[in-house]
Design goal:
32 helices, eight-stranded mixed beta sheet, alpha/beta, ten-stranded mixed beta sheet, about 900 residues
Amino acid sequence: MEADDYGTNEAQDSDFPTAERSRLQEMLSLLGLETYQAQKLSLQDALQISSDSMRNWAPQAPKDLPWNFLRKLQALNAEARNTTMVLDVPPDARPMEKESQMEEEIIYWDAADDISADIYSFSELPTPDTPVNPLDLLCALLLSSDGFLQQEIVLKMSLCQFALPLVLPDSENHYHTFLLWALRAVVRTWWAQPPRGVGGLREDSAVLSRAPTFAFVRMEVSSNSKSQLLNAVLSPSHRPRDCFWHRDLSVGTNPREIADGLVEVSWFLPSGREDLDVFPEPVAFLNLRGDIGSHWLQFKLLTEISSAVFILTDNISRKDYKLLYSLRGSATKYYFILSPYRGKRNTNLRFLNKLIPVLKMDHSHVLVKVSSTDSAGFVRRVRSIVAHVARSPCRRLSVEEMAHAARKLGLRVDEDCDECQRAKQRMERITRRIKDCDAYRRDELWLQGDPWRKAAQVEKELCQAQRAGDPPDKGRAELGHRLLELRAQQNRQDPAWGLQEFIAGISSPSLAEKQYFLRWMEWGLARVAQPRPRQPPETILSLRPKHCGMVDFGELLWPEPLGVEHFLREMGQFYEAESCLVEAGKLPAGQRRFAHFPGLALELLLKGLPLELIDGSTLSTPLHWVTGLLKELHVRLERRSRLVVLSALGAPGTGKSTLLNTMFGLRFATGRGCGPRGAFMQLVTVAENFSQDLGCDHILVIDSGGLIGGALTAAGERFELEASLATLLMGLSNVTVVSLAETRDIPPAVLHAFLRLEKTGHVPNYQFVYQNLQDACAPGPRPRDRRPLLDPPGDVSRAGAQMEKQGDGIRTLADLAFCDPEKQHVWHIPGLWHGVPPMAAVSLGYSEAIFELKRCLLENIRNGLSNQNKNIQQLIELVRRL
């Protein structure tokens, strides 16, 4: 038989029985996903707040499993893959699991039996009281999701250190999909140690960085588990990891029904610690689920993208020999892992001796593992082979380059749709012209530079004069005239070519193309940004002295990378200048050119993009732009316009953005010193069937970003601005989460704002969160942990109180926040990571504590403890007044 007989998609599909083509639909029906085949499940659907968001529920039926998986994955719960259901069915009423239902990981077969295709026939579908295989659940959910939800699922899986889907099988529709787009958002960080010189952290996209790749596959039957072997290879001996799912992780789970043919990928990433680093450089590992004979197309792909392929089998048949013979001339290295005592030993040896010259192997490429083999020693041997191949000249491909090989073999690549490609081409036209980010901001995004800084300063002086109650005088008139001059100067400009292209991108009639364009812009701008030296692991406290005293309010706290927010900020300035002139009667309303800008930006907010509420470069609020956005929001939401505003404040590096992202599935920038510095807002939708119970239709979440520095600046313009901005954010809020860097002191600007608001009687519901406890196993807040926060405040907090003339009579924080030590106003959240990054998973304690905090916040909203909910018109008026 010729090699081509095995290498075509048609040959592969013809091997599947007709009944298999209905398996997918039956699985989708079982999981309640059949309605999402024509109209795919979207990211917004998955992130809606419902009654389930307030209870730690266990799935009771297969239809609950996709939603339970998504909820746990959003919370970065390491147990998200557990598909166990809680049913009120007597144990004796449950059907016995057939012994013949076998998974590829652990298969025992007597050598005397005839091995035929019957052992790979599909089992009956899972019964409602038997857990669905997690890989079936993952495949069904991915096949029911649009590209943006797929991307979110894969991103969250990567943070949980789960193996990621690379090739998604879909035998019913006769094509398999290479998930390049779904992997685009994954970023990998590792310790890079050059041969000479000092090592350092390196960060790159998972789809762009090259690494040696090792594939592990099964041929017919193997009594050795690929997944368990891979997990052992990836894990230091004292820190076992379960990146790849295997049957032993869930007793009683059904065999796979639709996931055979799935290819998963996981990476080993060095941390710079010799006791933890199994390999000195990043290494990728691929795992093909199912037998290579039934999934020849996927196997053929692995042979063309891998540095080496490990084939696990007990028996080599004549058919297998012919399949492998077709690989002659391949540059890939091949290794066999055999269990000869479970197979036909003499037959294996005969075929191996024939394959050795064909596949350019020697006897060292054949490994034998039987029950008496020392498992730890065998894992070390596999690691040594991987390390040896990686050190030698070998194939090193990025995921993007793997996608090229997939296309040549006829696999579908998710990124190849017309909308995605048009958006990518537009992004490339914009970023191709960006040679220097600072120069581009200065020359192309001109309005947000000096003109906006000067206008913001004049607006601040006007506001101070009005607040002081001074009668109108010549000075105020001059300020008003100067402001109009600055706005007229801005309005005389036309949008630069790059901004016009950006506006065209977000004006596309195709909603999907807009979303593709924004994601491409985020990644494209990140690629062209100038590399920044990584900040050494200082604490936030050690950074404070650098920013104390009199500081210009426009001073950069850290280099702000060029991002999508700068293009939107420029649009905001065009709208702001034009609106200011129209309001002053200097420009007829009929001559407006930019009145549609808020509507364009609002579309992005509704699709999950954070929009800037406070400009991080000037620490100012573009009032016309923000109110324009809110007016558009009011029109768009119509009858569902009841809002609760939730804000998070605290010094940079205290984990508030990660907390919000984990709690609500948001996309706020994370990482101190490397993201935008402004305050951003995102909208979270409440499900219609829950909005009446919760008392609101949407939650507007505001992240203060890097605005609150936490510096002890009892005097100075910087502190006054921080305090004013904190007052604005807290004054808009129904609920405020204060993220703390120390147990004793809250940032003085936050305390200052709190004391101001207390005088007005507007006191949001406060929750104080202290993260990164050394005791990572702490399950939640404990009374002894709360005491430091309830003690009299220290020097920093006292300084903030003195700004409000509280003097020595300042009360404890418990009094200020109306905290009851027995109630959950103060939270201690365990550390984010379980282990040492970059291979660490998110700790289960962190995930559970975040869920409990979210439940408490929603409970407070429902019980009316967060003050009266606002409609959008009230919020607009509050923004103007504050």
